[in-house]
Amino acid sequence: MQGGSWQALARYAASKNVGLLFWYESGVRRPDPEKAPMYQAPSRREELSKLAGAGARGIKVDFFESDKQDTIRLYLGILEDAAAQKLLVDFHGSTLPRGWERTYPNLMSSEGVRGAEMYQFDAAFAQYAPTHNTMLVFTRNVVGPMDYTPVTFSYVKNRHHTSWGHELALSVVFESGLQHLADSPQSYLGLPDEARSFLASVPAAWDETRLLDGEPGKFAVVARRRGRSWYVGGINGAAEVRKVTVPLDLLGNGTFDMLLVADGRTETAFLPTKRQRNATDAQAIELRPYGGFAMRLVPLN
């Protein structure tokens, strides 16, 4: 909304059933109440009250760059004051989570990881990202929700080595209460129907998680359940083709509609498969070098 106000933007978003999160600096680098109102309690509470009154849904607070005691107190102060206004919180440029979401369930995610934004800043990251991604399943993401900003298909500066199947799979493989898909609208709208359908339906909160197979630095296959529906993601961190078999005994009773979006003939192509499956089945999948797949299983009865 060029030339408009943020309050008008919030009203427009609400009319489209879209909830907005607003980005802030933490203030650790420059404790100025006008430029970084989250740093001090009085300005923070005033700002959060304004946001809640305008219908905002939450905040993303960035650039903490410290684990000192006063910075940890700042994290907790933001969480407490945001909870009082029923606002969600995403910490970026931050430490890894420390169980705070158990006390403050409005904490959706924290960065605390070298994530997808590093494609823009570090050429070396593009080289090791496929292997790095498989390690995160067993290390950083075990600790708590991780704002990696996954599922990026376009090349901002440094070219991906991950396939599009790998990128799509990250929406399931990585857990984050707020799954921040960070590519452009044009990138997502240009995807094939099956990939767009998958991203439109994949949840951000889960009832059950299972590691089906994997080894740090090599590959990972993760299954997550929401209700009776299952989502499975698999990523390959190696430069060689990998074949995996996904056992479907986790489905229990009934028949399920399966959508499988696997690697296609090139790293920027998908191979979609649709069919009905049950608990006696198993699905064999071939992953390209640095490839991946995403699978959705929805009960028919």
Approximately how much beta-strand content do the residues carry? Answer: 25-35%
Question: Biggest β-sheet: count, sense, barrel?
Answer: 6 strands, antiparallel
Q: How many angstroms separate the termini?
A: 45 Å
- Lateral arrangement of strands in the main beta sheet: 5-6-7-12-9-10
Considering the protein shown, what is the CATH homologous superfamily of the largest domain? Answer: Aldolase class I
Gross morphology: globular
Q: Kindly report the CATH topology of the largest domain.
A: TIM Barrel
How many helical elements? 10
Order of helices and strands: HEHEHEHEHHHHHHEEEEEEEE
Poorly predicted runs of 5 or more residues? none
- Summed up, the domain count is 2
Kindly state the mean pLDDT as a whole number? Answer: 95
User: What kind of oligomer do you see?
Assistant: single chain
Helix content: 25-40%
Number of strands: 12
CATH class of the largest domain: Alpha Beta
Radius of gyration: 20 Å
Examine the secondary-structure arrangement and name the CATH architecture of the largest domain: Alpha-Beta Barrel
Q: Report the structural category.
A: alpha/beta
